[in-house]
Specification:
The protein is mostly helical. It has one domain (14-89). The protein contains 3 helices and no strands. α1 runs antiparallel to α2.
Length: 90
Amino acid sequence: MRGAVDPFPDSVTPDQIHNEIEHVSAERHELWQRLADGLDSTIKSEIKDLDVRLQELWQELRMEKARLRFGEREEIVRRARAEERLERAA
């Protein structure tokens, strides 16, 4: 199982994140298959860890897609403030 270390460098693509989601999902599926053979608390714990990791990856994917669509957060805030100043001046 993967540790808590982020497998991605600072800049990642949605495809890289999606590939990691596929990898973690496959690993999770294998663990579910092993768990079907008999109750094992270690496997249950690993599945829970992978579930958390999958949630984090999906969130990271949503954030990256939003960044690509709308731009960096600072740029969005800057544009919104500029529009607000224009509206007040009008």
